[in-house]
Amino acid sequence: MTGREEKKSNDLFFTCSLIDYIARKTKNKRADVVDALGKDTISRIYNLADVYHSDNIDQVSDDLIDTAGIKEGSFDNVAKAKYAVPSHWDIGKVYKRLILGISQEKQVPVVDALMEAYHSFVSEKIDDYNSSFYYDAPQNILLAFLEGTVEYRVT
Predict the structure, then answer these.
(1) Can you give the pLDDT at residue 155?
(2) pTM over 0.85
(3) At how many degrees (to 10) do helices 138-147 and 88-106 cross?
(4) Which of 22, 63, 66, 78 lies at a C-alpha separation of 20 to 30 Å from 52?
């Protein structure tokens, strides 16, 4: 371990942040970006995140957008936000925590957990910047994913 967290955890953070960056840049839903990139490309980004992270994120995202043929969409959650917009790094951290939780709970590889997270109803909740869901406690976001609902139980 170098720094405050495991290297692969940091690589996942960068991967998720890059997905969000591309989604914002192309005005697409995060699941659509994940689908366009595909599991193999996402695995490559995750495995080479330390290399990609040292490059300019605009260039990296442009290369991936071109290679994957990602077209301009119409989903613009940043423009729809009425309040302060979290950065792509902020949202990358939310997804990283969710994906690590899914991977651990379901005993699946990280990239498989990533695919599940971005294709779940929780992804739409995270990407609604007019709600407070994206900054909820990580365990609550994971619990919502695992239980299939955002309703909270009082214990």
Answers:
(1) 46
(2) yes
(3) 50
(4) 78
- The CA-based dihedral angle spanning residues 101, 106, 111, 116, taken in that order and rounded to the nearest 10 degrees: -90
Give 88's Cβ-side CA count (13 Å radius): 16
Question: Residues 15, 89: contact at Cβ < 8 Å?
Answer: no
Helices 110-118 and 7-26 sit at what angle, rounded to 10 degrees? 30
Taking the C-alpha atoms of residue 99 and residue 77, their distance in angstroms, rounded to an integer, is: 21
Q: What tokens does 67 get?
A: 């290679």
Alpha helices in 6-155 (DSSP H): 7-26, 30-47, 49-53, 57-68, 77-80, 88-106, 110-118, 121-126, 138-147
With vertex at residue 142, the alpha carbon angle to CA 10 and CA 5, rounded to the nearest 5 degrees, is 20
Which pLDDT does position 132 carry in this prediction? 86
Query: How open is the CA angle 67-10-49, to the nearest 5 degrees?
Result: 25
What mean pLDDT comes out for the span 105-123?
97
Residue 33's alpha-carbon distances to 8, 85, 102, 146, 152, in angstroms, are 21, 20, 20, 23, 30
Q: Between 2 and 11, where is the model more confident?
A: 11
Biggest CA–CA distance in the chain, Å, is 49
Give me Rg for the CA atoms of the chain: 15
